[in-house]
Design goal:
With 735 residues, the protein is an alpha+beta fold. Helix content is 28%, strand content 21%. The protein is built from 20 helices and 28 strands. Strands 2, 4, 8, 17, 19, 20, 22 and 23 form an eight-stranded mixed beta sheet that branches. Strands 9, 10, 11, 12, 13, 14, 15 and 16 form an eight-stranded mixed beta sheet that branches. β6 and β7 form a beta hairpin. The protein is globular and about 80 Å long.
């Protein structure tokens, strides 16, 4: 069986008829057809799911049509509230339309009327994006607003304890924020505010009439209050001089501090109070665990629980304080939280994680942060988090045809009610998924409609409704499910589900569930598609499941620390299909074989052409080779012990790799062919990922080589089979 296709290959063509469908980069289904009966769906064993990446726009390339219905109002089904779309049917000479979700006949408003052609289509269909395009945006009228659109607001909460100053976090955070101010979205309406904390917390009065910023210290941690409620969150353009002065002043103000304490919980409460009248983005820069206040974390990791049935306790919060703050304050006030965790030693991310998870925020983790080593990665992450396309005050709902229900949602969000995803902010890097379940034993319809509607405020202050549509055929033939299976989309949902189970029950249950899904899916094919060979796509299921079992997010044993696993679980929650594919089967490239090939040189689209993948097996690593591995969150450069000095000189400007084992490096820009090709490949990889990817070198036979070998998913380990052994074991179970 060949290795999985490269994530760099052109996407496979969809099995769905293209007319009117949402592009797959926004929304795609794990199969190209829906089983007609619940019995067939059960035998298939894999989830029937939809992966949604609602704001996955590429700058300069995408132009989602915008529709403004004006006084007519947005055209929707009066019963199920589905938005008019390319799959509704107009009848009665165009005076009525049948909803493709619930089947109700709706009257066409007089100023939206158009007569039909001989095939029953409206004659103005080419002029109506909502009737011809699978993805559109509607301008939302006033009745879609609880309040007028608020200005984009950013509050920066910076740890100024002794550890934070000594590690360089305070200086780097202030410098990076200052450099990014002009790129913040929403200007000239953008608002900013700042809060620093150690054993107390400090507000900053940035009123435009002041000559310099004023610090206002609040030592009362039990009942934090706002000393000047209206002057702490200010318009950036009006107060830019004071903001710049403050960001220069904070590092010098605390340069000689010896205060080791952290009042993290009260500081977060105070920051939320600053912005709860407008909502927006709160960014926390943390360098040590909280030592003061009611919201505390586990000071030490109980390593005795690693690899045991009780390991899940380390993956759950030690207190509900941060979850309560997320749900009762942040989500209700439309505040999303990003956490830049730069702690020394154990950080107990599991306890802090809910503040980001339930507000559709993000966790960034830099263990034992030192600015001299980590500043470039940290800086790139901060800049992207503040400048990527984002929306505010968002809610999302997914509707499906009668007889089919959305049975579960997966991702980093808060589910308000039965089916409304509350998203204080939404950005281009966040994806979600949902499971579809048949409510009836047998479907009588020919197609199942799925519509995702995202209501949000753009950074320019416009209320918009972005609508994505799929129209998926129903099949009575189980072989069609396997013929149209998208294994990578299925694994995206299976991995999200496994992570949820690992947290709620135990890791072993999640691993067993994955294995059962794989075995039962292959068994269903053997029983229901007798004599038919597995499709090439279905043959990829075992390698992806094996890779998931070996991945750090689900791996058993004592090797994976709780913070690392929590961080990866948070990443999986918001990952689109491409990202989970990269995590499960990382891309490995042979850099030493680039010469005399087109790889690493610009292709027809101007981007670097990517080399073919190397199998993830230690047997594929040649002793004279140089291999680049992209895990989706880290880059590794493996240097064979027989690598030529010339290759090392051409790539790294070094004659020997003796001191490079485990080192973080930046490839130098050299005038050699190998350097220029490798840098082009490296840059394309980095541009494709939402996280800044650090590059670490690994020497063959060195102490750090285990970091590379843990990604060789086709190899045998102490607790898991090799890929051939795994196939043999599956074959025995299917007999």
């Amino acid at each position: 069986v060949p290795p999985p296709p490269s994530v760099w290959d052109p996407p496979q063509p969809s099995f769905l008829a293209p007319e009117g469908q949402s592009p797959s980069k926004y929304m795609h289904c794990s199969v190209g057809c829906i089983p007609s009966s619940a019995a067939v769906a059960q035998k298939f064993a894999l989830p029937i799911s939809v992966v949604i990446h609602p704001l996955n726009d590429v700058a300069g390339q995408d132009n989602v049509p915008v529709v403004n219905f004006g006084a007519t109002g947005v055209i929707r089904c009066r019963r199920c509230r589905t938005y008019v779309n390319p799959f509704v049917v107009f009848i009665d000479a165009g005076r009525r339309w049948r909803c493709n979700v619930c089947g109700l006949l709706n009257d066409v408003p007089s100023d939206y009327y158009c007569n039909l052609d001989g095939s029953g289509k409206r004659r103005d269909i080419s002029e109506r994006p909502e009737l011809s395009c699978g993805t559109v945006e509607y301008v939302a009228p006033a009745d879609y607003m609880v309040r007028p659109p608020q200005p984009p607001s950013f509050v920066f909460v910076i740890d100024v304890s002794a550890r934070s100053v000594q590690s360089g976090l305070v200086g780097e955070a202030c410098q990076t924020i200052r450099q990014t101010l002009s790129q913040l979205p929403g200007q000239p309406r953008t608002q900013v505010g700042f809060l620093t904390f150690d054993s107390s917390f400090h507000f900053y009065n940035l009123k435009s009439t002041l000559s310099e910023p004023q610090m206002l210290a609040v030592p009362d941690l039990d009942d934090p209050f706002l000393p000047l409620p209206s002057e702490l969150l200010v318009n950036l353009c009006e107060c830019r001089g004071l903001v710049d002065a403050l960001l220069e002043k904070i590092p010098t103000t605390f340069a000689n501090t010896t205060n080791p304490d952290s009042a993290l919980g009260p500081a977060l409460q105070a920051a939320c109070a600053m912005m709860q009248h407008v909502g927006g983005k709160l960014q926390l820069y943390q360098s040590c665990q909280p030592t003061l206040g009611k919201a505390t974390t586990r000071a030490h990791e109980d390593t005795a629980l690693l690899g045991s049935d009780k390991e899940s306790s380390l993956l759950n919060p030690s207190t509900d304080a941060f979850k309560t703050l997320a749900l009762e304050v942040c989500s209700k006030s439309q505040i999303s939280v990003d956490v830049f965790c730069c702690c020394e030693g154990h950080a107990d991310l599991a306890t802090l994680l809910p503040i980001a998870k339930y507000t559709n925020g993000q966790i960034y983790h830099y263990p034992n942060f030192e600015a001299s080593r980590d500043a470039d990665t940290f800086r790139a992450d901060v800049i992207r988090s503040l400048t990527r396309p984002m929306g505010f005050e968002a809610v999302m709902r997914i509707r499906a045809s009668q007889g089919v229900k959305v049975s579960a949602f997966h991702g980093n969000h808060y589910l308000r009610g039965a089916d409304l995803l509350a998203l204080p902010t939404i950005d281009a890097d966040k994806a979600f998924s949902c499971d579809l379940q048949l409510e009836e034993q047998n479907l009588t319809c020919s197609h199942v409609a799925v519509q995702c509607a995202l209501l949000y405020t753009t950074s320019d202050g416009e209320r918009r409704i972005r609508v994505h549509n799929l129209n998926i055929p129903v099949s009575t033939n189980m072989a069609d499910l396997y013929a149209t299976l998208d294994v990578r989309a299925s694994m995206n949902v299976l991995l999200k589900t496994a992570v949820e189970q690992a947290i709620t029950t135990k890791l072993m249950d999640a691993r067993s569930r994955l294995q059962s899904a794989c075995v039962n899916c292959l068994r269903g094919h053997r029983l229901m598609c007798q004599g038919a060979e597995l499709t090439e796509e279905t043959k990829l299921l075992p390698i992806y499941v094996l890779a998931a079992l070996k991945n750090l997010v689900l791996r058993d044993g004592v090797e994976v620390r709780a913070d690392e696993r929590s961080m990866l679980m948070m990443m999986v929650g918001s990952a689109p299909t491409r990202a989970t594919s990269s995590m499960l089967y990382p891309s490995m490239f042979a850099l030493h074989k680039l010469a005399n090939t087109p790889y690493g040189t610009p292709g027809a689209d101007g981007q670097a052409q990517m080399p073919p993948l190397v199998r993830l097996s230690s047997e594929a690593l040649e002793a004279d080779g140089l291999y680049l591995l992209d895990t989706g969150y880290m880059l590794l450069l493996w240097i064979g012990k027989a690598s030529s000095p010339q290759a090392l000189s051409d790539l790294l400007n070094l004659s020997s790799a003796d001191r490079l084992d485990g080192a973080k490096v930046n490839l130098p820009q050299l005038q050699t062919d190998l350097s220029q090709r490798s840098l082009a490949i490296l840059n394309r990889i980095r541009q494709a990922h939402p996280l800044a990817l650090s590059l670490y070198t690994v020497r063959q036979g060195g102490a750090a080589e285990s970091k590379m070998l843990q990604f060789m998913v086709e190899d045998r380990t102490l607790s898991t089979m090799s890929y051939p052994e795994w196939w043999n074991a599956l074959s025995r179970q299917l007999q």
